[in-house]
């Protein structure tokens, strides 16, 4: 029997009592609720799943598979309501989801893909009402009889990036069975995100207190990152985003991974250490932090690993570049920083921000102004459908909260880099130069990890 007085951080998450209808928000959801209701207007924070499906798609079976995913996960049917004691979650009935179907075959062949991007970009600029919804939208665009683009857009208060992988796995299992005319037998999730929110609301706070103490010490005296070549900072964020792309070849990627293994680290750690060097050189500072997204400790729990929900968190990783160390030493320091931070990843970022002695500034993100995002697997590779070739369908990013976001992930050529930047803060030549310098830093670091940081930028 569920006993809310006996819940600890080590207790498994169990199904909530059936009489609970109005559910609490998780701390991460509470942060998004505050941001979305305190600063109304503009676009809602969204996560997108977009795939291009080439081949003979059974559109009816695909729609039923998407319905099944929505019915399996309560959070995709959840709305929110204000109450005197604070906001609550309300789960809707398992009625599937209306899929918007748009036929573009009447357009000239050369215009269809462009029009598909326009339509999808429009839908990514939606403002979704947390109380009235819907908070999940899905579309199927038909470019040709054997060429479709499918997209699902979800309010970030409901889901995170890892949730998209969960959805892909379930569609991989459900679609072939439904297309064959059979009923799927995928086991139902043992618990739902609402169960996790109830569990979190009653868990003890000892771990949270330890995490607060850790982050208070780690981020004491944190200074904002200001690049020397930045534009005058606007009074408020809101400028559109742009991006600069670069590809690291397979040989450099191999050597990065070799360096990582030799340091008992990961490719992510090498890339993060080099990014700290890049931004330190570009700013003349060494007391700043770089933000990273993490899946959240909740994902490590077996009962939660396969559910859709908001578990991801942000960590502010402060690089220790003191003493002009060799790159190999910086990599060792970065490894320790990452591992220690992951041990304290459960405290929601909003609560970490509250610990900072940093006033709110509408023109600057709090805590960190640059983010690093690293993928081990291409998103399109997560979805495997018989008879269909699944491809990505890249879309632009309308705007970003941070000045600079660096994405790294595998590509057929090696490693793909994308520098997404706020055009109100950075100009395109500045970001292009940053991307080129970053590659150069990595090449010199893998060639000679014994070079000191001050020497890396001079090896041409």
UniProtKB/TrEMBL annotation:
GO cellular component, one term: cytosol
Alphabetical GO biological process terms: amino acid activation for nonribosomal peptide biosynthetic process; enterobactin biosynthetic process; lipid biosynthetic process
Gene3D superfamilies according to UniProt: Chloramphenicol acetyltransferase-like domain, Nonribosomal peptide synthetase, condensation domain
Pfam families referenced in this protein's UniProt entry, alphabetically: Condensation
Cross-referenced InterPro entries: CAT-like_dom_sf (IPR023213), Condensation_dom (IPR001242)
SUPFAM superfamilies reported for this sequence: CoA-dependent acyltransferases
GO function terms (MF aspect): 2,3-dihydroxybenzoate-serine ligase activity; phosphopantetheine binding
Condensation domain segment(s): 22-456
PANTHER family: FATTY ACID SYNTHASE (PTHR45527:SF1), NONRIBOSOMAL PEPTIDE SYNTHETASE (PTHR45527)
Protein name: Condensation domain-containing protein
